[in-house]
Design goal:
This protein is of the alpha/beta class. Helix content is about 40%, strand content about 10%. The termini are far apart.
Length: about 80
């Protein structure tokens, strides 16, 4: 379970590159995205193994923007990791 947040816990923080690498090795993830200005319930932050800031800059995104940005950014990273043909 990956908690998406602009303020990741340093002990649980994971980079988009790490998630992309793991995905290329057939690992799957559940991404939890907060809804509205309150975001995810605090108890979920403790349950998530990873905390991901998709911007890597601490920028807060609107929910629908985050929902689109997460897979798009990860797909771009993964495409760049695959050997060129």
């Amino acid at each position: 379970m990956v908690i998406t947040t602009s303020k990741p816990d340093p002990k649980r923080q994971v980079t988009p590159v790490k998630i992309a690498e793991e995905t290329l090795h057939n690992r799957s993830f559940l991404f939890l995205v907060g809804l509205g200005h309150k975001g995810l319930p605090k108890e979920l932050f403790e349950r998530g193994k990873y905390h991901l800031d998709i911007t890597s800059k601490g920028l807060s995104l609107e929910t629908c923007t985050a929902i689109g940005a997460i897979p798009a950014h990860l797909a771009g990273i993964m495409k760049n990791m695959q050997p060129k043909k």
